[in-house]
Design brief:
alpha/beta; 41% helix
Length: 301
C-alpha cells in the first residue's frame, strides 16, 4: 500500500477520534480506513491505536508517530500546493500593513500599476504607525523600515533610505547649530514615538565612533509627516529618513543640522509570515516592489 495514504489514514483517525469520522473526512469507506491503518501497524510492527467499542486513541508509540507523520503530511501538502500555485495566476485578497507616511508618499502612487498588471488581485492597504502582528491580525505582509525586530518573519530588502538630522533655518537662527554630537543635549529635539529604542538616536561621529543621544525630547509624535511639519515650523531638530524630508530640503524649508556626520542608511523591507513556500500573490507583489523602487533610483530615498 501507499505509505503516505497509510499515514494519512492513521493521522485522520487520530484527528477525528474514530474510523467513521475519518472515513467521512477522507471520502472513503470505513473498512478502507481500517485496512490502511492495519497495514501501517503491520509494516511498522507496532500497535499505534487503542481500539474499544466506544473510542479510539493513540498509544504512546502511536502519539509519537502521529507527530512526525503529521509533519510529513503537511510538508507533502505544501509541496503539492507549491506546484499548483506556480502554475496558476496570482489572485485573491492581498492585505498589507504600511506606515502612514511611507504608504501615502510611496506606496499609493504605484499601486495602480500593480493592479493593472494583476487584475485578479485585490489590495487592502492598512496605514498605521505601529508594528502589527502579521499572522494574528490577518496580514499577508508589511513594509518595515530599519532593523528587523522579529527574527521569526521572513524579509526581503526592497531598497534603503538615509537618515539625517534636520531643522528649519529659523531654528538655527534662534538657537544656533550644533557643532558636535554632545551639543544636541542642549537643543530642542523632536522624536518619533514608535521607535523600538524609544527617544534614542544612534549616530556615528566623524571619527567613526558609534554614539547614542538619549533625551526626553521637546516634542514626541507617532507620525513621520507630523514630525516633519513640526521641524519645518522651527520647533526643533528631527532625525528623519530622506524619503520624508527630501522635498523640504530641496525647497530650503529645512537644512542639515550637522552636515559633517556620516549618513546613516536604513533598509526598507517587505516582511511576511514564515513558511516553506510563499503565496503567489505575495511573491508577485514583492517582486513588483523591488522593480518599482529600483526604477525610482536611490536618490529618491
Amino acid at each position: 500500500m501507499d505509505r503516505l495514504t497509510e499515514m494519512e489514514a492513521f493521522a485522520t483517525v487520530v484527528d477525528q477520534g474514530g474510523f467513521t469520522d475519518a472515513a467521512r473526512k477522507m471520502g472513503i469507506s470505513k473498512s478502507a480506513v481500517s485496512k490502511h491503518v492495519s497495514s501501517l501497524e503491520t509494516r511498522l510492527g507496532a500497535r499505534l491505536l487503542n481500539r474499544t467499542t466506544r473510542r479510539v486513541s493513540p498509544t504512546e508509540i502511536g502519539l509519537a508517530y502521529y507527530d512526525r507523520a503529521r509533519r510529513v503530511l503537511n510538508d507533502a501538502g505544501e509541496a503539492d500546493a507549491l506546484v499548483s500555485s506556480m502554475q496558476s495566476a496570482p489572485s485573491g485578497l492581498l492585505r498589507i500593513s504600511v506606515a502612514t507616511d511611507f504608504g501615502v508618499n510611496h506606496m499609493s502612487p504605484i499601486l495602480g500599476d500593480f493592479l493593472a498588471d494583476f487584475p485578479d488581485i485585490t489590495v487592502n492597504m492598512v496605514l498605521n504607525n505601529r508594528y502589527v502582528e502579521l499572522i494574528s491580525e490577518g496580514f499577508d505582509l508589511a513594509i518595515r523600515i530599519g532593523e528587523m525586530e522579529d527574527s521569526s518573519l521572513r524579509a526581503r530588502k526592497l531598497t534603503e533610505t538615509t537618515k539625517r538630522l534636520i531643522a528649519a533655518p529659523g531654528y538655527f537662527e534662534q538657537y544656533g547649530r550644533p557643532e558636535k554630537i554632545d551639543d544636541l543635549n542642549e537643543h530642542k529635539l523632536l522624536h518619533y514615538s514608535n521607535q523600538s529604542a524609544g527617544n534614542v538616536w544612534k549616530l556615528t561621529a566623524p571619527s567613526g565612533e558609534k554614539r547614542q543621544v538619549r533625551t526626553q525630547g521637546w516634542l514626541t509624535v507617532n507620525d513621520g509627516q507630523s514630525l516633519l511639519n513640526a521641524c519645518v515650523s522651527g520647533l526643533g531638530i528631527a532625525y528623519l529618513p530622506s524619503f520624508l524630508y527630501a522635498d523640504a530640503l530641496e525647497a530650503g524649508l529645512v537644512e542639515e543640522a550637522m552636515p559633517g556626520l556620516p549618513t546613516e542608511a536604513q533598509g526598507i523591507y517587505a516582511v511576511y509570515p514564515p513558511g516553506r513556500y510563499t503565496q503567489p500573490k505575495v511573491r508577485t507583489f514583492i517582486d513588483f516592489l523591488v522593480e518599482a523602487f529600483k526604477e525610482k533610483g536611490p536618490e529618491t530615498w
